[in-house]
Amino acid sequence: MYPERLDHFMARAAAAYYARPDSPFGRAGDFTTAPEISQAFGEVIGLWCAVMWERMGRPDPVMLVECGPGRGTLMSDALRAVAEVAAPFRAAARVHLVETSPALRAVQARVVPGATWHGGVATVPRGPVLVIANEFLDALPVRQFVMRDTGWVERYVEGGAFVEVAVPSPLPPPARGGGRGRRELGELMLPDQAAEGAIKEVSEPALAWTASVAARIAAHSGAAIILDYGPTTASFGDTLQAVSRHATGLDPLAAPGTRDLTAHVDFAAIAHAARDAGAATHGPIPQGLFLLRLGLMTRAAMLAQARPRLAGEILSGAERLVAAEGMGRLFKALALCDHRLGPPPGFEEP
Ligand code: SAH
């Protein structure tokens, strides 16, 4: 057995995990995401897209793209909401879903009829674009580098444990495919100075995805909203985590393919990569603040009033998305935009 680079291990584990026929989402599954907690989440994101479409000058057609749609709940809620209050946007929107799992594509097809599926953003047709990514980037593989007295070494996986491997310099090699003006990852990501034992994570697929989305936005106009968890500023640390049946803190290197593996999103690096590729960035700001500004609680109150028997559940779900001790603070919102569009809803300074 040869040691396997961490990102390769993670990619293999994720492919097996998301290809399972049973759904990992929801109470009976492994974890619950924002769109599964409250329909108001997908609704306000849909309206965010409709506002941006207006600012873009109402292009028809417009590509409405979601990456990693899971069970399709967010897109389904978003489309229902915009059909009601922004019918011209709904009519102009061509729905493209970026999803690698055949099992999840089948689930998505039931709730988002008429969509087109892609294995990556590269095959989405060119043109004005609105992109949604909720808990997508955290699922993409990371490499981990550790500072030793000899400099940065890289973590590999062997027999269910980490081993450290010297890395050839210059380090690490640049990602394939990025946008224009892309710098080498080494220059972008690995600082010269770090304390002994400090760990730096680098997600090359996340940076390549960002560069490609930002380049499209710069070339054809549009915007992207990224919602995920991670720190606002660049930081060190091993954030790789495994979740199974709502149990956290499991060994991420054990039983690959049976647990959801994620790492914190490095928002500073993502924003940097987006600006390098020609997009403006707004945020990251706490998800709670973003959702409150979009009127999530007002929408939840309306839903609660319409269904009094479910009111408690509806209101506590929405509360969980915005509360600091729920998902409101750890989760962040970051927007990538055409420079001409100005700060999107939720990111305007009050
Ligand atoms: N956005 C959904 C699901 C989040 S889970 C929600 O909030 O509920 C991560 C999603 O990303 C799953 O749909 C998974 O199959 C998909 N995914 C993971 N790796 C991917 C990759 N490399 N390319 C495309 N989709 C991927």
What do these coordinates show?
There is one protein chain. The protein has 350 residues and is an alpha/beta fold. Helices cover 37% and strands 23% of the residues. It has 13 helices and 15 strands. The protein has helices at 6-18, 34-37, 39-55, 73-85, 87-92, 102-111, 185-189, 204-220, 267-276, 287-293, 296-306, 311-322, 324-328, and strands at 4-5, 62-67, 93-98, 116-118, 129-134, 143-148, 151-158, 161-166, 199-202, 222-229, 241-244, 247-250, 260-262, 280-286, 331-337. The strands form three sheets. Strands 4-3-2-5-10-15-14 form a seven-stranded mixed beta sheet, sandwiched between helices. A hairpin with a 2-residue loop joins strand 11 and strand 12 (247-250). Helix 11 runs antiparallel to helix 12. It is globular, with a radius of gyration of 20 Å. Residues 173-188 have low confidence and may be disordered. It binds S-adenosyl-L-homocysteine (SAH). S-adenosyl-L-homocysteine is lined by residues 14, 18, 25, 33, 35-36, 68-70, 74, 98-101, 104, 134-136, 139-140.
The ligands found in this model are: S-adenosyl-L-homocysteine
What is the rounded Rg? 20 Å
E-strand count: 15
Low-confidence stretches: 173-188
Distance between the termini: 57 Å
Helix content: 25-40%
* SS content category: alpha/beta
Strand-residue proportion: 15-25%
From N to C, what is the helix and strand string? Answer: EHHHEHHEHEEEEEHEHEEEEHEHHHHE
Strand order of the largest sheet: 4-3-2-5-10-15-14
Count of runs of 4 or more consecutive helical residues: 13
Overall pLDDT confidence: 91
Q: What is the makeup of the main sheet?
A: 7 strands, mixed
Shape: globular
